[in-house]
Specification:
This protein has nine helices and seven strands; from the N terminus they run E-E-H-E-H-E-H-E-H-H-H-E-H-E-H-H. By secondary structure, it is α/β, with parallel strands linked by helices. The chain has a seven-stranded mixed beta sheet, with helices on both faces. The chain binds pantoate (PAF).
């Protein structure tokens, strides 16, 4: 299937078959995993993947296992049409958009847990987050079979978790960390809808933690997100 000139692949088996063919003909594969709602930060990763490899793949999958029950999985922004258009413009060959059923079929029971580096910082306020990220990225890697995968330094702890995982599990994939893309106001680029999601999430952190030892430092992302939200709304 194609949308706006980019090939859409929807199952792990079909993705692996495509990637296997690329590898057999000696082509390198660059990969950018995303949850969609693409913005300039993603675009910079995708350009690097397209530039640095013979073939480039972006995945779009809003991963349920990295959301806790109170984290509004259903309200995460979904802009698939625009995301495919941008992917094609940048020169990605494939958008891998697996269905939830193909990723987590009935009876699914396997998770990847990275010790130490997943604990503390974001891992403290979002205890299931890095287990979900490590699990889904492993599954995406197993389908896309990339030579290189690109992540933004904006999510610094996520980068550290993925690097550790790739090394510890002998994945043989180069993890490329790309610099933060910033708005003129200095804050990291983030889509409007995605920002709204983050503000809602941050507000929930504030309202759910006041009595259980939330430290002043851990409120800073909330303050930043709220400032960004205000600026976005004023534009
Ligand atoms: O950074 C993200 O968008 C997600 O955590 C990722 C790496 C795509 C896994 O779902």
């Amino acid at each position: 299937m194609e949308l706006h000139g980019v090939k859409i692949v929807e199952s792990p088996d079909d993705m692996r078959a495509w990637s296997f063919e690329q590898r057999c003909s000696g082509r390198t594969i660059g990969f950018v995993p995303t949850m969609g709602a693409l913005h300039e930060g993603h675009a910079s990763l995708m350009r690097a993947a397209a530039r640095g490899n013979d073939a480039a793949v972006a995945s779009i999958f809003v991963n349920p296992t990295q959301f806790a029950p109170h984290e509004d999985f259903n309200r995460y922004p979904r802009t698939f049409d625009a995301d495919c258009r941008l992917s094609e413009e940048i020169g990605m060959q494939v958008v891998y958009a697996p269905t939830a059923a193909s990723m987590y079929p009935e009876g699914y029971a396997t998770y990847v847990n990275i010790e130490r580096v997943s604990q503390g910082l974001c891992g403290r306020s979002r205890p299931v987050f890095f287990r979900g990220v490590a699990t889904v990225v492993t599954k995406l890697f197993n389908a896309v079979l990339p030579h290189r995968a690109y992540f933004g330094q904006k999510d610094a702890q996520q980068c550290a978790v993925i690097k550790r995982m790739a090394r510890d599990l002998d994945m043989g994939i180069e993890i490329v960390e790309m610099p933060i893309v910033r708005e003129p106001d200095g804050l990291a680029t983030s889509g409007g809808g995605r920002c709204a999601f983050r503000v809602r999430f941050s507000m929930r952190v504030i309202s759910s933690n006041p009595a259980n030892g939330t430290r002043r430092g851990s409120w800073m992302p909330c303050v930043q997100a709220r400032r960004r939200w205000t600026l976005t709304m004023l534009r």
